[in-house]
Design goal:
Blueprint: H1 5-12, E1 35-39, E2 42-46, H2 57-75, H3 80-92, E3 97-104, E4 107-113, E5 121-126, E6 135-138, H4 140-143, E7 149-156, E8 162-169, E9 175-181, E10 192-196, E11 204-206, E12 212-217, E13 233-238, E14 248-250, E15 260-265, E16 273-279, E17 285-290, E18 297-300, E19 306-311, E20 317-321, E21 329-333, E22 346-349, E23 355-356, E24 368-370, E25 374-380, E26 385-391, E27 396-399, E28 411-413, E29 419-423, E30 431-436, E31 441-448, E32 458-466, E33 472-480, E34 491-494, H5 509-517, E35 521-525, H6 535-539, H7 547-562, E36 571-576, H8 578-589, E37 596-600, H9 619-622, H10 628-637, E38 651-657, H11 666-678, E39 685-690, H12 701-718, H13 726-732
Parallel strand pairs: 34-35, 34-36, 36-37, 37-38, 38-39
Antiparallel strand pairs: 1-2, 3-4, 4-5, 5-6, 7-8, 8-9, 9-10, 11-12, 12-13, 13-14, 15-16, 16-17, 17-18, 19-20, 20-21, 21-22, 23-25, 24-25, 25-26, 26-27, 28-29, 29-30, 30-31, 32-33, 33-35
Length: 733
Amino acid sequence: MKSSLRNTCLLAAFVATGALAANIPAPPSSNGTPVEETIQGQVVHDPYRWLENWDDPKVQAWSDAQNARTRTYLDALPTQEPVKKELTKLITATSPAYYQLSPNGKLVFAMYSDPAVQQPMLVTLDAAADPKSRKVLLDPNKLDAKGHIAIDWFVASHDGSKVAVSLSKNGSEDGTLHVYDVASGKEIDKPIPNVQYPTAGGSLAWAKGDQSFWYTRYPGPKAPEAEQHFHLQAYHHKIGADWQKDPLALGAKDGLERVSEVFLNNNYDRDATLVSVQRGDGGEWAFYVLREGQAPVEVADYPDRIVYATIGPDGAIYAISRKNALNGKIVKLEAPFSKGALAAAKVIVPESDVAIVSGSISFGTEDLSLTSDRLFVRDIVGGPNQVRIFDHNGKPEGKLPLPEIAANSEIQPLADGNVLFDVTTYLRPRYYAQWTPSTGKTEETALKVTSPITFDDVEVVREFATSKDGTKVPLNIIRKKGIKLDGSHPTLLYGYGGYGVNMTPVFAGAMRRLWLDAGGVYVIANIRGGGEYGDKWHREGMLTRKQNVFDDFAAAGEYLISAKYTSHDKLALMGGSNGGLLMGAMLTQHPELARAVISAVGVYDMVRVELDPNGSFNTTEFGTVKKPDEFKALYAYSPYHHVVKGTKYPAVLMLTGATDGRVNPMHSRKFAAALQTANGSQHPILLRTDRKAGHGIGSSLAQRIAEQADELAFLFDQLGMTYPAKEQQASTH
């Protein structure tokens, strides 16, 4: 039902109190047969084991009832509709964005995100990356108008005549490979299934001549169900051949383990392909060189402590080593390559007091970027990036000009010898600049995002909280200029803290603009477990030291209160995935810290996480119950096992997707059931499940907007906020 402008304004001015929570139905019964088992001498209670089985119609009915209950609450919030309308207005009025630029031959391939449509599409630009030359190559919105088909990744051939694309449905990241002719846009090969899955991703590299490629594939339905998304191996495929007969190029016979993650790369060298193999998610790396018709050569093994490598335009291997260098050093190995040779490669850039970004392979990003005569090294300095420039022998040549608090993820050489790189800050969306080596000058290009969202009235300050053990934890505080520190500001604290992931600056965007306009302060904590200060920062927040992550985040919340930004009743916490685990720990270890918590696609049952489809890949980060010391640590902080009856928990909104292959949605179901049963407060514990979404990757525009509107409306209600803020209402209405 549509509202008049007057009614919308009145609703938007509603002062939320959380009182509506009292009118929502009681949660559906979660009673089932409890399970009790003894692990490493510890009796472990699991009262909601029955909620693990999604194939059980009773579990689906329970989930649907939870969803209906959540919608009863959220849809009744007077701020929900106006917030959703404003988010839609701001997001769709933002200009299209380009990312994952890939120069190939006479073209630059790129992902193109148009806010007017549901899914990003694959486009080509001319050699100068001029947006006026844009041509759409593949539009998933034409494959599914509702936006439930997404591009996982693409790799163009070296000459730019062909492109391989992984497509998946419903946010599953369960990809099928398609090969297209660039000139005609027509598919030129039969689809290859099982090339991508969240457990270990997927990858591809074109061979010399661009008539064949190496790619990764899972065993798929032919394997037992428990093994279908493990045993990732590399195959060699010729265009037009039967993929089921593709020869194995690198696999178990070469030492690849059940939980191997395999990445293929020959961006700079057509004769050889470098294969990076990671032992689980966050584990050690091994590296192999593939050439057509030859057996793979293992140039580095796991103990060698190489965490990233690429073959440069000169045919040499350039690598980031952490052997006796926690912050990383750059080594170089000249061809020909032999077994284990990278362990003794020449150091060309020694370790420094800042950490080199490393081990974060993903499409469109490289930890090291090379041109015909230069090497670009991306550092992380407590959160923001810097980029140092060297020649191929390690001679320093300065830095790329980045703003003080900014992020860079892409550095691409263009055909004319210039270098294209992206820049993002908290207050400005991504733009690309072009650096000219001969002059040292940098100019912004037309590849930039323009937005009606401005932050001229906003500033970003870096402050530090002190953790339980004395460690200083950086806080990036986004606030209105001139705010009074009187403890009155609703404050949203966000954290992740895992896998060495760096919380670099990202554009604050529409959601945070609305949050600030409603009187809020937004804070990102660079807690341990991330890589913001190098490998040491990560290691201090993994395995048996995971508790440090939670202590850092709790200290961040207490700092914001002591510094008079906010109060316990005005503080909200937010995190997703590994950050969802963080939220679970805050709820069970510090239920009094905040008034509201949003936790998305989180991990909560640490005793059974490794039994999930993706769980085995995460033992390198979390540990395993099979080792007594690691089990002790896991059980000590496992949120699901530390829910205490009668505890007055804050308001909680939990979100998950039914097709999530990264974190089993059963974690959210079990944890929600435990919290709802035990809760001693009147604050709602809500579970929201999207049946056509996964971990969030591949979600449509409509899904993303709906989720953000629900999150903001929930926070506004629970923290007693108005939208727009009172001072804005006076001037607007």
